Amino acid sequence: MEQKILQDDDIETLLTDVFELYGYDFTDYSRASIRRRVNRLFILDRFLSFAEFRYRLRSDSSYLRRFIEQVTVNVTEMFRDPLFYKTLREEILPTLGTYPFIRIWHAGCSTGEEVYSMAILLKELGLYEKSLLYATDINPEVLEKAKKGIFPLLHMKQYSENYIASGGTREFSSYYAANYDKVIFNADLRKKMIFSTHNLVSDGSFNEFQLILCRNVLIYFDRNLQSRVFDLFSESLDSLGFLALGSKETIRFSNINPLFKQVNKEKIWRKTA
After folding, report:
1. Would you call 145 exposed, middle or buried from its count of C-beta atoms within 10 A (0-12, 13-18, 19+)?
2. Which of 103, 119, 192, 224 has the fewest CB atoms within 10 Å distance of its CB?
């Protein structure tokens, strides 16, 4: 049974504070996920009471960064779900390759592993130079990590296996340089990347894209919030643009579903209107 440190009313009060003081709206996030993560932070930072926790959050704007880092979900890896990336390589990106220019949005990019995966795909298909990759997240801490392109060396074995399974055509190690227990990915992969904070809940559309990827983010949102984000994605997509979601996510029951046609079982839809 999950230990309940803070009462539900306490958590609602904290979320209201964060929204009113800083503009971050977590009120429609999955309550189970929020409850676990806020309680975990309460324990980690050894607060003695809810009042102390609330005072720190309200009075110390720098502590907000830690709150956001702990409450948002940052689980990702390179070429996660290789069959998904194989579909991008063989079906989606060749179609976009017929366009004069390609804009891709990684929404909720976390530490950037999937953005670098996309850059590698575009390189290998000869499409990188005419592409722009927009990588956004609500969490400024993870964006700083993504910009640097530095990842743990111990993850490279799994990432290499994912890359090969996704149809990779080169030596995966050719894309990075190892230094002790870290690797840094080649600077030319970052040349076409634009990193920026963006709140899917409250921020609007900022461009028109041919491909939007938001994988395993929406599972933490409730139905109303998912609907708002889907509207944002539909508004931000080209008339024949593609939307890619995570394996447990779907637009099937959303109000934008009539505007899209599912391309295949890898959770990729194409806008038809």
Report:
1. middle
2. 224
CB 261 within 8 A of CB 272: yes
More confident residue, 124 or 66: 124
The model scores a pTM over 0.90: no
- Alpha carbon distance 203, 244 (integer Å): 20
Position 110, amino acid: S
> Which tens digits make up the pLDDT trace of 103-148?
999 999 999 999 999 999 999 999 999 999 999 998 888 899 999 9
